[in-house]
Amino acid sequence: MDSELQRDDSILVDLAAALASAGVNAFRFDFAGNGESEGLFQYGNYRKEADDLRSVVSYFSEQKYDIIALVGHSKGGNAVLLYASMYHDVTVIVNISGRFALEEGIEGRLGKNFLQRIKKDGYIDVRNKKGKFEYRVTEESLRDRLSTDTLLSSRSISKGCRVLTVHGSEDETVPARDALMFAAHIPNHDLHIVVGANHRYTGHEQELTSLALDFIKPRPRKSSSLRPKL
Prior knowledge:
This protein has 2 domains: 10-100 and 150-216, Rossmann fold, CATH 3.40.50; 103-147, no CATH class. 39% of the residues lie in helices and 14% in strands. The protein has helices spanning 10-21, 46-62, 75-86, 106-110, 114-121, 139-147, 150-155, 177-185, 205-216, and strands spanning 70-73, 92-96, 123-127, 133-138, 162-168, 189-194. The chain has a 4-stranded parallel sheet with strand order 1-2-5-6, sandwiched between helices. Strands 3-4 form a two-stranded antiparallel sheet. The longest helix is centred in the first third of the chain and has 17 residues, at 46-62. It is globular. The two termini are 30 Å apart.
């Protein structure tokens, strides 16, 4: 499955620090069941995570922040893109290594004949290489993933929303061809393939941070605003 980036992962920590140096506040959080957030991890849950993101955006908007960008890595990339397709109030989206073909990558995690097995038992327990239990995939959560229409949501993002997709050419979790699909269907889209980078951008952290920062940094406006930027 797609790996979830926790808020204390180095990718987001480095980017948040770079944004702060540029005078932009950054708020990092874990979706329910990830990292330090309460709740159970859900295998699909894409729409719920977009709704959770909506709650975060609404809260900071009420606190008089200008929300200038949303950034997500891996499954988080899918969440920010889905948000942009549903709500048209954030004009910059950065999708880092999101998966376009959600029907792929499932067998590698759940094993062969996963559809038959999950229909028989109602769930599949996922374990790591050492055999330790990680999480349970229910038939409902699997259906949620398979029913999420990435093509439709990509085409539903408004032209006024600038989207950057960054993907590593050597990504071992989500193939780089997925990035090409986002580029083909999102109306206002920039694509950058980081040559040699894996899913975690090991050894390419600075390049990733620079790409995202340059895309996010507020562009000069004719009229200045006193509202803080987030």
